[in-house]
């Protein structure tokens, strides 16, 4: 659907005001000791709203989440916390931040808590297919809380190039190994959540990683 620029701008303002009203409703229902100031429509920039929504959706626990957000450019979410006290403690350490919430994202069907697949799915770059391997007769997902560490080893024919990298399961849920995958899956997402400029920055950064310090 095509809309006139002024109409699109009006829609953004209406959506922003609606979300601001929802946030005010959430905060007004908190216990007295948990009450936090509601973010105003002037504070709720469209870019910040997108990032807040993505941060909440990334924690599909069904539990309350309090976000610590910046209220000046670059508008961003600095952290997600399960209690308002922990959010306050973090916010006090960072200038020009506010607390928003509580919000929650419902758990995925059949998953009372977020899970990790013990046999990951992947994109076949030669066939452009999404492939999930493993035994379909048993569950392959276990709660993230039971995952101690993610370890990825890339084995090269030249053993001196073989690398092993360790990741914390609470902060890693997808991995990309080629520039093609980054271009297809990473950049469109971050262009939407942040901006075209940020996506261009990420692409330039990834190209430098592939090229190394001395170039191709």
Order of helices and strands: HHEEHEEEEEEEHH
What's the tally of helices? 5
Class per helix and strand makeup? alpha+beta
Residue share in helix:
25-40%
Assess the beta-strand content as a share of residues.
15-25%
Mean pLDDT, to the nearest integer, reads: 80
Largest sheet: 3 strands, antiparallel
The total of beta strands comes to: 9
**What is the molecular shape?**
globular
Give me the Rg, rounded: 21 Å
User: Which residues sit in consecutive blocks of at least 5 with pLDDT less than 50?
Assistant: 5-35
In what order do the strands lie side by side in the largest sheet? 2-1-3
Terminal residue distance: 44 Å
A few lines on this structure:
By secondary structure, the protein is of the alpha+beta class. Helices cover 35% and strands 19% of the residues.
Detailed description of the structure:
By secondary structure, the chain is α+β, with helices and mostly antiparallel strands. The protein is 35% helix and 19% strand. The chain has a three-stranded antiparallel beta sheet, sandwiched between helices. A two-stranded antiparallel ribbon has the order 4-7. The protein has a two-stranded antiparallel ribbon with strand order 5-6. β5 (121-124) and β6 form a beta hairpin. α4 (179-193) packs antiparallel against α5 (196-211). It is globular and about 50 Å long. Mean pLDDT is 80; it is low at 5-35.
What secondary-structure arrangement, pairings included, does this model have?
Layout: H1 5-28, H2 46-57, E1 65-70, E2 77-81, H3 84-91, E3 97-103, E4 115-117, E5 121-124, E6 129-132, E7 141-143, E8 150-154, E9 163-167, H4 179-193, H5 196-211
Antiparallel strand pairs: 1-2, 1-3, 4-7, 5-6, 8-9
Helix pairs in contact: 4-5
């Amino acid at each position: 659907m095509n809309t006139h620029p002024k109409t699109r701008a009006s829609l953004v303002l209406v959506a922003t005001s609606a979300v601001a009203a929802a946030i005010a409703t959430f905060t007004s229902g908190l216990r007295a000791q948990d009450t936090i100031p509601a973010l105003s429509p002037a504070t709720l920039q469209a870019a910040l709203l997108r990032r807040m929504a993505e941060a909440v959706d990334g924690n599909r626990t069904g539990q309350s989440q309090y976000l610590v957000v910046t209220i000046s450019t670059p508008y961003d979410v600095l952290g997600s916390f399960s209690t308002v006290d922990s959010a306050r403690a973090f916010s006090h350490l960072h200038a020009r931040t506010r607390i928003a919430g509580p919000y929650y994202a419902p758990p995925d069907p059949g998953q009372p808590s977020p899970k990790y697949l013990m046999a990951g799915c992947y994109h076949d770059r030669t066939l452009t297919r999404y492939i999930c391997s493993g035994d379909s007769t048993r569950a392959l997902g276990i709660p993230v809380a039971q995952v101690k560490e993610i370890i990825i080893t890339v084995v090269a024919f030249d053993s001196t190039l073989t690398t092993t990298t360790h990741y914390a399961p609470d902060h890693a849920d997808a991995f990309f190994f080629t520039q093609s995958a980054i271009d297809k899956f990473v950049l469109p997402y971050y262009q939407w959540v942040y901006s075209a400029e940020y996506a261009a920055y990420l692409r330039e950064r990834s190209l430098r990683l592939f090229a190394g310090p001395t170039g191709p």
